Amino acid sequence: MERTLPMPDGHDRNAGMQAGAAFHPVRDGRGEQAIAAPHGGARVDGAKAEDRFLVSIVVPTCGRADLLNRCLAGLTAQNFAAGDYEVIIVDDAPSDATRKVVGAWTERMADRGLEVRYLPNRGPHGPAAARNRGWQAARSPIIAFTDDDTVPTADWLRHGLAAFEKGAGVVRGRIEMPLSSTPSDYERDAKHLETAEFVTANCLARRAVLEQLGGFDERFRLAWREDSDLHFRLLDHGIAIADAPQAVVIHPVRPASWGVSMSQQKKVVFDALLYKKHPRRYRERIRATPRWDYYLIVLCLLGAPLALLLGKPALAAGAAIAWLLMTGRFCLARLRGTRKTASHVAEMVLTSAAIPPLAVYWRMVGALRFRVAFL
């Protein structure tokens, strides 16, 4: 079967199946193929003889069949020849619900020649491990990553692949997170994903690059900092990263339970791992200094009752007032620009008191677990 890589300015979604626009495999010195499109398509290096597709889309999922169904609707509607890509769903918590959703799309796409595969992940678990299972099972020289809660736009894959013409090893697309005019604190915080340097919700990589780096570090068991770790290793190895601003995925903010920001503090454990692996880049690109404000708040919180026990009421009162002022300032900063419903205000008051001690606790857990001096 002859193939071409559709370019963003093309109009025929089946152009890749037309004769006269074929890729031509050329052996390189490593026994691999460099697939070139002579009519203006992008060059795909590192293809192997057993590869069946130009690109494989890998999506890790975990108990979110409804969101996955929405994502698959976007992935199967790409303006891209159906026979030139595959979709691999890696189920990190294998379930009948997810299997049924994927199975339905597999049957629906069979007549179009688009393969949608279900791959249960028996362990180890976590999004990093699930992505590794996915790209290792892929049958193409290019791997595209997104998440089960995204909605890729119709030209996402075309624009992302076109960016490899620049000789990059990795391509990063753009994320859009639509919000209401009065978001919650959680929603506003999630929107920072739009300006993140590198996120696995929208990136493509040559398989050879993933093999060179050993894929994702599976010690990152939660969806936190595993993409930053990959990004930093790409930088360390001097691997070129190209931008594809027209390769867009929509990332609606998922509904969250009341007080979700407290449970999210557990993720900071993996900041310790990222800092251990990349101390300089962490301070340059994540956080320049420790959260001294949190430590000071916790010091006052613990110091007030301790001073009272030691018979120093004035010191106890001073510590309590300092804690109240700093916590109040933190709460007001989180409320600024967000909705002012009674429920949300109450949530901000409670969680603003809880976040500093929880964050400090999980930082200590991370430092101990990964044996690193991390504040």
TrEMBL record:
Matching entries from Gene3D superfamilies are given as: Spore Coat Polysaccharide Biosynthesis Protein SpsA, Chain A
Q: What is the source species? A: Noviherbaspirillum humi
Q: In this protein, which residues make up the domain named Glycosyltransferase 2-like?
A: 56-182
The alphabetized UniProt keywords are:
Glycosyltransferase, Membrane, Transferase, Transmembrane, Transmembrane helix
Q: Which residues cross the membrane?
A: 292-308, 314-332, 344-362
Q: Which domain of life is it from?
A: Bacteria
Output the SUPFAM superfamilies linked to this UniProt entry.
Answer: Nucleotide-diphospho-sugar transferases
State whether keyword Cell wall biogenesis/degradation applies.
Answer: no
Per the record, the similarity remark reads: Belongs to the glycosyltransferase 2 family.
Question: Protein name, please?
Answer: Glycosyltransferase, GT2 family
Keyword Glycosyltransferase attached: yes
Instruction: Name the lineage.
Output: Bacteria, Pseudomonadati, Pseudomonadota, Betaproteobacteria, Burkholderiales
Q: Which GO terms describe its molecular function?
A: glycosyltransferase activity
